[in-house]
Amino acid sequence: MTFCDRDMLGRLYLDEGARLERQVARRIGNRSIAMDLVHDVFLRCWERGGALRGSPAAFVTRSARNAAIDHLRREILRNAHAAHAGPAPVPQDPAFDALSAREAGAAVRRAIADLPETTRRLFLMNRVQGLSFHEIAARCGMSERNVAKHMAKAVARCARALDEQQGG
């Protein structure tokens, strides 16, 4: 067992994080979830105090792969439960679906426009430009935690807008 100090863990994240995100995203098909899974892997390493077995790069690579596999297994279970949850929904008119989608999109665009400037800018950097929290933090001169707080605020506002649009 080797000991990886927290500075080394930070360097390891800088060196390996983007590669791991790409690998996990290829496996699960979703870049945002891949970013979250890789962040979780490094967070668990941080919480362990940096104690890693063998090669730290190999350890986080294997951990990210395992996190992706666990995520896919949970998705399979969720889908299986959803399939058995009840009768299939009655097909709706495609025109209704298109109208509903346009209204939902407009509600989200209004919610984004109403966000504070910094929050809106960070949200668009992540969701439109595809930048990770780490990349946004580096570009904007702030901590990843601060970026995450802004993102949580933006996502919550978009979710509220959709709920309000759907009458909930």
Describe this structure in words.
This protein is 77% helix and 2% strand. The termini are far apart. The model has no long low-confidence stretch (mean pLDDT 85). It has a two-stranded antiparallel sheet. With 168 residues, the protein is an all-alpha fold. It is flat, with a radius of gyration of 19 Å.
Give the topology, please.
Layout lengths: L1 E2 L2 H23 L2 H17 L3 E2 L3 H28 L10 H20 L3 H11 L5 H8 L3 H22 L3
Antiparallel strand pairs: 1-2
Helix pairs in contact: 1-2, 1-3, 2-3, 4-7, 5-7, 6-7
Give short descriptive properties of this protein.
single chain; flat; 7 helices; two-stranded antiparallel sheet; 168 residues; 2% strand; mainly alpha
Short description:
With 168 residues, this protein is mainly alpha-helical. The protein has helices at residues 6-28, 31-47, 56-83, 94-113, 117-127, 133-140, 144-165; strands at residues 2-3, 51-52. Strands 1-2 form a two-stranded antiparallel ribbon.
Q: Indicate the radius of gyration in whole angstroms.
A: 19 Å
| Proportion of beta-strand residues | under 5%
Low-pLDDT windows of residues: none
Name the overall outline.
flat
Instruction: Tally the beta strands.
Output: 2
Give the number of helices: 7
Oligomer: single chain
Structural class: mainly alpha
Distance between the termini: 53 Å
Helix content: over 70%
Order of helices and strands: EHHEHHHHH
Mean pLDDT: 85
Across the major sheet, the strand order is: 1-2
Major β-sheet profile: 2 strands, antiparallel
